[in-house]
Design goal:
Length: 121
Amino acid sequence: MSFPVLICDDSAIAQKMVKRSLPDELATEITLANNGAEAMQYLFERQFALLFLDLTMPVMDGIEVLEQIKKHSIEVYTIVISGDIQPEMRRRVAQLGALDFIAKPVDKPRLEEVLVKFGLY
């Protein structure tokens, strides 16, 4: 099963790590965004099934992206991947609609575990 995936992170290395950690069957339709504003532009232009979202980015951070997704009722499963692993931040992203939270650096087993948990893989 393959569907459109958007990876939003200001680090090219982090983008590559997420991309490499995705199961091969999912990794065929991937778009990369370097900040939240760019991600929102893509989300307004086309439908994505899954968004991997960093929190700390220039221009527009991940919290702002989650707020905009909620405000505009954009349907996209969102998984936050961030180094900010504080319990309060985890609660905040959950309140804003993120499915789950993965601490950086992402690894393939943890990512697959989350995808299976939500029936995405």
